[in-house]
Structure formats: structure tokens, C-alpha cells
Write a structure and sequence with these properties.
single chain; 302 residues; alpha+beta; Arc Repressor Mutant, subunit A; 48% helix; globular
């Protein structure tokens, strides 16, 4: 299950709302992690009260991000800081990932397209961009692109000199001119990154579960799931093989379970066949008999 740094999530909630917020702990200890279900509950709480994913009160300073923040600050170049921040981001949240292609840094998740999830993604991108400006100078970000279409709270980003484009197809940062971080120290940076890598290896990393979630959310082709998980398709296939699984088997597993759920719910076979991408109801019925040894019509619940 994807997880997020608990202190970062707690910082999203305005101090006066902490007692009301759906947090397991209002002051979580460093290193504590919560599931992304908690993240979405927190964002639902904030949005319902007129909050914004761009609330400056929710900013986390780089110093406050511990090992992750110090690894970024000691990077020898601006681009090294960006790449380090992107690669080590699972220390903050492993529910998505960054991918850089040239001067475009994109954020990808397998999260549902509902307001709390999209607002959470917008917050992730906005705060990463603000960190780039703080670390690498006022020209570090040319533009922030967000699927989130609400204009609330954008004054904060604009005050940092960041141009924001709303309602785009993805969440991304267009990288500008990066200055050298003021605390640049190559040897210390290498030491901190080695420590961070050791912490990353200790994090739960259930790729199979992440792929299952992506498939359930409509990514029935390997390239679609790979994009959501910020992986190259070849890397996704290799890592699944290392776990003893294949993408096609996971798709088949999803279709099998979903077919039984929908049949027993009483949905029409033609609708189920369409939803699960069978050629027609007859093909669905054949697969159902193969899976469960019984025709769909005999497996409906009264």
C-alpha cells in the first residue's frame, strides 16, 4: 500500500483544525508513515472547509524534511538537486513518482481522479516547485502545470514568480535556470544520498499491489500502468518478473474477480463484457465457465 510521510501530511492541516482532522496522530514522530487513504481523508477534510492545496501554511522547509532535505541542499549542482529530489521522493511519498525528460519534470500516480487525490497531487507539485525556487533561485521554475482547475490559493505560487497553468492533462514542472544550491558540498551530498538509499531499501515496496490498483483504475495495458507508476514499460515488466508475476496474469486476475462481483450484483452480461473489454457476452460466458466451472446465469445471487 502506498504511504506518505506522516509529518508532511500533518503539516497540511491548519493548526486550529488539528483536533478535528482525521489524523491518526496530530504530532507524528519523524519517520512515521501513513497510507494514502489517510492522505485523501485529510485532503477531503481540508477541501470541505474551503482550504487549498496551495496553502502557504502547509509549507515544509527543506530543513524540516530531515535527511531528504539535507541531501537536496548539499547537491553539487541545481540539476543534481532536482534529480536527487525526484529519485529520493519515496522518502516523502511512494504513492507516485517523478520522471524527468529534458527540462520537464512530471508527477505520475495511480490515484483516482477525484478531488482529494487531484488536490493532493497539485499540492505535491506546487510544493516541489516552491522548494526548487528556494533552493535553486527565482528562475528555477518556468511554469507549473496542474490538472487541478481551482484558482484558490495561487497567489502564493505567483508571489514566488511561478507561472501556473491550470486544467492541463498532467501535473508537471517546466524547469528553468537552476542556480547552484548555497550549501553545495559534493562529498557530504554523496554521504547523505548513500544514507537515503539505505532508508529507501527499507521502505515497503509492493509493486504488485500498485500494479493491481492501476489495473483496477483502467490501466489495462502495460504502458499505461508504467506511465502511472513513473516507470519505463521494460522496467515494469522486469520488476514484475522478479516478483514472479506478469502484467497479463494480473489483468486476468482482475477481470476474473470483477466478473464474479458484477455477475453476482446482477449486472447484464453485455454490460459486464463491455466493461471488462471482452469481445461480446459469449466470450465472457466462456471465460466465466473456465474460471469458475459454472455459467454466469447459474452464479447470480438471489
Amino acid at each position: 500500500m502506498p504511504s506518505v510521510s506522516a509529518p508532511v501530511i500533518a503539516a497540511i492541516v491548519p493548526p486550529e483544525r488539528l483536533r478535528e482532522a482525521p489524523l491518526p496522530d496530530a504530532t507524528p514522530a519523524p519517520g512515521t508513515r501513513w497510507s494514502d487513504g489517510v492522505v485523501f481523508d485529510v485532503w477531503r477534510f481540508v477541501l470541505d472547509r474551503g482550504g487549498s492545496p496551495f496553502d502557504p501554511a502547509a509549507r515544509n522547509t527543506l530543513d524540516g524534511l530531515g535527511l531528504y532535505g539535507f541531501a537536496l541542499q548539499t547537491a553539487p549542482t541545481g540539476m543534481a538537486a532536482v534529480d536527487t529530489g525526484a529519485r529520493l521522493f519515496p522518502l516523502i511519498s511512494d504513492r507516485g513518482g517523478w520522471r524527468r525528460e529534458g527540462d520537464l519534470l512530471s508527477w505520475h500516480t495511480a490515484s483516482p481522479a477525484e478531488d482529494p487525490a487531484v488536490a493532493s497531487d497539485a499540492s505535491t507539485v506546487a510544493h516541489f516547485a516552491a522548494g526548487m525556487v528556494a533552493l535553486c533561485g527565482s528562475d528555477a521554475v518556468r511554469e507549473v502545470r496542474l490538472r487541478w482547475s481551482s484558482p484558490r490559493g495561487l497567489d502564493w505560487l505567483r508571489a514566488l514568480g511561478i507561472h501556473v497553468r491550470l486544467g492541463t492533462d498532467d501535473d508537471a514542472i517546466a524547469i528553468g535556470a537552476l542556480s547552484r544550491p548555497p550549501r553545495a558540498h559534493a562529498a557530504l551530498h554523496d554521504h547523505l544520498v548513500a544514507q537515503a538509499d539505505a532508508e529507501l531499501r527499507g521502505l515497503p515496496n509492493d509493486l504488485v499491489e500498485l500494479v493491481r490498483r492501476a489495473i483496477a483504475q483502467g490501466a489495462t495495458r502495460p504502458q499505461d500502468a508504467a506511465r502511472r507508476l513513473a516507470l519505463a514499460p521494460r522496467t515494469l515488466r522486469r520488476r514484475l518478473a522478479e516478483a514472479g508475476r506478469s502484467f497479463s496474469a494480473l489483468v486476468d486476475e482482475h477481470r476474473r474477480a470483477e466478473a464474479r462481483r458484477l455477475v453476482r450484483r446482477g449486472d447484464a452480461l453485455v454490460e459486464i463484457a463491455d466493461a471488462l473489454e471482452f469481445s461480446d457476452a459469449t466470450a465472457l460466458s466462456r471465460a466465466y465457465r473456465r474460471w469458475y466451472g459454472v455459467a454466469p446465469s447459474r452464479d447470480r445471487r438471489a
